[in-house]
Structure prediction request, 921 residues.
Amino acid sequence: MRKLHRLITAAALIALTTATRADVCNIKVVTDANPDYSDIGSFIHSSTSNWKEDRDKCWAVFYWNHIGRRQTWPMCVHGQTVTDPICQFNDYGYTMCSTISGINCAIFGAMGLPVRYWDIGLHTVMDVEFDGKYHMIDDSMSALYTLCDGKTLASVDEIGQEGACAASGGKVEPGHIAKYHCLYATSPNGFLTGADVRRSLESEAYCFDPTFLKYRHYYNNWDLGHRYSLNLRDHEVYTRYYHRLDEGSTNAVAQPKADKDYRADPAYFTPNPFDEVGGGDPESVNRAYHIRGNGVRTYVPELSEAGLTREAWSLDGVRVTAGGVAPKATGTPGSVIFSVEGANVLTSLKIAATLVRKTDNDRAAIAISVNNGQTWKEVYTADKTGEQQADVKLIPEVNGSYEVLVKVSLLGKGAPVDAALKSLRFEAITQINSKTQPRLRLGKNTVYVGTGAPSQSIVLCPGLVGEAWKANVVDSHNVATYRDPKTQAAQHPGYMAVMFAEKANEEAYIVFKIDAPGDLTGLTYGGRYYNAAAQAHVDTLHSFDNGKTWTNSYSLTDTSAPWDVIHYEKAKTIPKGVRSVLVKYVWNAKNAGCAACGLYSVRMEANYQPVDAAFKPLEVAFAWKEVQKDYTSVMRSHIQKVDKVPCTYVINVGGEDHPAMGSLRVNLVGAQPAPATYGYSDGKDVGGEKVRDRWMTVGKVLSTGKPYTASVKSKESWGAGDPDGRKLTDGVVGSCYSGSSSPTDGVLYTPGTKPEITVDLGSPQKCGAFRIQAISGWPFLDALQGQKKDKVEVLTSLDGQAFTSRGFFDFNLRRKDIPVNFMVPDNESLTGYNFPLILAAPVEARYIRFKIDPAHMLGISEVQALDGIAYAPFDLKIALPDGHDRSDVTAYPLRHDPSKEFKRSRKRMGPDGSTFLGDLP
Prediction:
């Protein structure tokens, strides 16, 4: 048993606190260009509340989750992959299929919709229930599939079944839905558009083979509870950059399993210990994704008497003198503690201090704590006399934390002022998910700036794997964590508890302590629990009187599946003047094995009152690059002074396309040198309306299966070639990715060949549009960057003799023109694309000629004539905050009643509960 050995020390810390910090709390800056990722409630509100039907709400979540993450080795923290959506979307974005499926379960579960988690052939997906049935959502491959009606989203178990319809020409095939009814594919039987690599629908059909399906009725692989909290003080500035800041750093080093030429500075990333990353930069595995950005947060505390009272976390036996902060009494130690916050996850911290140590008998030292003062680590001790400059750079000591307490300890033996703190500066580096930060788009953007509850927060979210948890608790009993029996490594099997009882049939518990520098105003705590055995239970309790009395806030006794249960409770009453709380997690598997009951993760948040909760004016500065006609860019910025909240204002972005985001800075007025004028950096408001997205509807393809001739024979390199004259009209459109086996999809031409491909439709047809799927052979040129310089002209004829030009394809794509129902590949490039040429009015033609002039090696997988292609305006319907605080995770139905769903699901299982048998009645 671990006794309450730290309670006296912690209580003393609180008793010596003379004042609490003055912050502008829970600052929120969001735009109408992407969702609000502050907390799960805000995300759901911003992304779904302007949609009426559940099917539309779920599509919106699918769309934004495609953007907010990339398919790569998942981020692993505390020995577990991160499935909390708010944590992933703010700080990381590195997910694999199992990770994003768990994230989707968490989001849809918080929306009150039943979910199911499935392992299928070499893949993991989930489905969600609405409109009376389940519908598969795959945000790993960015795919949705419909039934043969083209409207109803299919469930997991329907996608791989045998079927037939007009789309397959009546041919009955396994995986019919996967092959012919994917909404985000290049064509029927083609390739996924929004995936991480070239992935065919045929391979997807294999994944959904009914014999491979395993419904994890006992497990959702989800987590929830994290929230984004930005609090700022008078001398604090936080700037988020939408790109990594360590490229070219002199401290950059090669990463464990990355290409030799990829280097990263450990001060700028949170290492990912997952298999293929091996403790390196999570960006290094797929650096083309450009997920990781960085934040820089600077803080210079005011060391005057008023400033120290206002900004220090705690003061113990120190005062402000002419020579700096010094002990109050000779020979008696004193200390001052400051808090350094991240908002996003911290990767490193620099501490620059000017300290005085007059004699060898005097002492000046700096220590840090990353667990609310439970344990301290000394990181600097003055070893010389006189005025000392401490330059401390911390990486592993703070990496992965969200708040660091920094304590400066002073002892003057001869006189109090013989040891002093004269100046102090902090610079914290954070890691951010660049895909989800507040964005601007071309045209008119509405920016919202607001604040949440006027209270500060202390959050404990400790890891439970291995031995690290022991440093974070004040008491424990009968506790064990999973270890691999072969390697003894701190791991766990995923679907079972991370922490469980060491001895069977005996109660186990852990106790945490939270100390605040001000009076507590709120307490929310809970986590993700595992409760699988009959008569097992998990209880959560709290105490405001140092453990003399306990309040049992929740008891989980339901042992029906799914067994990973997310639950949070809020303390109903908090005694006046209380600044400390104990939180206790208790579990007992009763008559079952030790691992049949326990904890996956825990999270505790205590709120407390700052000394001054009054709002102070803010500055919000956006910087971005405006894309020009020639694809070059011009940097612009806008600074807004916010005198009161909530505040909304407009930023107009010019150029030819959506901008590349540069940075977002937030600070209280006065923390930065005042700008000459607020507003645009160049003084110009470019005006403009909000750019609306488009939804594309593709008409009937008239050229499928029709004969054609080519004036120049294709190269046969890398499997290219079309000896039978069928590939270019076979109805299968190639991948959006160049390289790999992409040349096998069609023909390949080199500069100077100038082939002409002429398709015979067999009879005159009304043609309203044409397409050509053009793939960069080498180099892999990106149409979204204006790199493709090939020329292709379309000509039509009724008799095959006289041809009339209908125009040229535009290979210079703009992101603003990509329809929202086309999922852009994970690397955000289009080296292969089915380029459209839409006529102002249909023309009658039998022969369609594609006159091609390659500028580089050019692959073509399909040429098409269609009766038309239509674009309709489409609104993503982002909702800005409406004044309601949605940060309370306890307000959401995090778990639907599993009993009915479990019984229904068992009808799909074989005797062992794992083998797919067939459809429900």
